[in-house]
Design goal:
The chain is an alpha/beta fold. It is 39% helix and 16% strand. The chain is globular, with a radius of gyration of 24 Å.
């Protein structure tokens, strides 16, 4: 299977079986596109001589295994070992963001903090169920985790101690709205956190329209200074400034660029997950969103050429390296290798299932009590997501988010079409960026050798 697409004045062929990306001329693109199912392309302008040349080029690439390559079968890699926990250290928040999937931090239950005892039990549970894994991951989540900072710190120190005893290592991440990001917290994060995710939706008017404090005020002025200070002190350690775009700011490329202008060089901007009528993304928004990704792609490359480049999460793909095929077909590890732990110690497949009693899978004290549900998540993979079979993006996206699939389509194996459309466009932009980077590197090398 191949995917032929155009970006601005460039034409590309992506070979799904080999993962190869080729740039081609317009005639070749139209000729191959005409052979794709459902494509109505006029190729009457292509001469017989051109067709012979195109077919010769195609046969040459086929002989090298770089075009129309048969898709290699691969078995999903899903062990019975748990590798990561999302620790809901606090089911409360000092913000009241309208689009919050977590019910403004409460997860449709009482607002509560996780105790140190429960957090330590979670650490023990992970170590005891991690099998031969040497590197374990723990993500502190909320609500707002910094509202329970003493327990968060105690948990980190306990986990490091237990890991040393067990011959393992922990990698920690925290997601925060940055309101409580003091100098002391920044020092702690820089010492202990492998990654930090900071929430900022972009421009002040966009951020303040949704992300309000408990007293109803916009939060931008409270957090922007903290975020800028954190970024300036983070050094070469990982972080992301993460935004959310809604139907209210479909010009979200401006928000990404605004965040970059604040000094952040690692940025993510995610489509909202909500059913609120005025905020949710609908099919009618997709053409605008796709054009917005192109606008962002163009500016991304422009800034890269000017030496002002930044890392945008959704433009990061690796066609030559990256995860092996077995991992790509495995889809998400939620509910099998990865779990969320809510404040009382109950286990859920991931943070987006937390609080839904139908998906309660046990607790850190009693272990997994729903092996049937775990087996369902373990068996879920690219091959059980039947609608992914003919999609060019399947080995990159792996079938999408199980939680989004379930919440919008009623089945973890039923891909959410709106997410699929956005994913495909982002991937095309990312492929164009890869090709442009390669071209620039070759031109630079040629100049150096001249």
């Amino acid at each position: 299977m191949i995917h032929v697409f155009s970006y601005r004045d460039k034409n590309y062929i992506y070979d799904v079986g080999s993962g190869s990306l080729h740039e081609c001329d317009g005639a070749t693109a139209d000729f191959l596109r005409a052979g794709e199912e459902g494509q109505d392309v006029d190729i009457s302008y292509i001469s017989d001589e051109q067709i012979k040349e195109i077919l010769a080029d195609v046969e040459g690439l086929k002989a090298q295994g770089l075009l129309f390559r048969e898709e290699t079968s691969a078995r999903p890699v899903k062990s019975g070992e748990i590798k990561a926990l999302c620790i809901h250290i606090c089911h409360d928040c000092n913000f009241r963001c309208r689009y919050c999937f977590a019910d403004e931090g409460a997860y449709h239950a009482e607002r509560e903090f996780m105790s140190a005892e429960t957090a330590k039990a979670a650490v023990d549970f992970l170590i005891e169920n991690s099998g031969k894994r040497k590197v374990l991951e723990m993500d502190f989540f909320g609500g707002e985790p910094l509202m329970n900072l003493p327990v968060l710190k105690e948990t980190v120190y306990y986990a490091k101690e237990r890991a040393a005893q067990a011959g393992k290592k922990f990698l920690f991440t925290t997601t925060t709205n940055a309101l409580l990001l003091s100098d002391d917290v920044i020092r702690f994060f820089n010492e202990e956190m492998e990654n930090v995710v900071l929430s900022l939706d972009g421009r002040k008017e966009v951020h303040d329209a949704i992300r309000k404090t408990v007293n109803g005020k916009g939060s931008f002025d409270y957090v922007i200074g903290n975020i800028k200070k954190f970024v300036s002190l983070r050094g070469d350690k990982s972080y992301y400034v993460r935004g959310t775009f809604t139907a209210k700011n479909l010009d979200f490329s401006k928000d990404v660029l605004f965040i970059a202008d604040q000094g952040a060089d690692s940025i993510s901007m995610e489509p909202v997950v909500t059913d609120l009528p005025d905020l949710r993304i609908t099919e009618e928004h997709l053409p605008r969103i796709e054009k917005e990704y192109e606008t962002l792609c163009d500016e991304y490359l422009k800034r890269l050429a000017e030496g002002r480049g930044f890392n945008f999460f959704h433009f990061n793909i690796d066609l030559e390296g990256g995860p092996c095929l077995s991992k790509r077909v495995s889809a998400c590890g939620a509910g099998n290798e990865y779990f969320s732990v809510v404040p009382n110690g109950d286990l859920y497949p991931c943070h987006q299932f937390a609080g839904d009693r139908e998906f309660r899978m046990g607790s850190v004290r009693e272990g997994i009590t729903r092996p049937d549900l775990r087996e369902k998540f373990r068996n879920s993979c690219l091959f059980t997501r039947k609608k992914c079979g003919d999609c060019f993006a399947k080995f990159i996206c792996s079938g999408g988010c199980s939680a989004n699939n379930y919440h919008f389509c009623g089945d973890i194996d039923e891909p959410y079409p709106i997410t699929c459309a956005m994913m495909k466009k982002r991937i095309e932009c990312a492929m164009h960026i890869l090709a442009e980077k390669k071209l620039r590197a070759e031109e630079k090398e040629a100049k150096a050798g001249a």
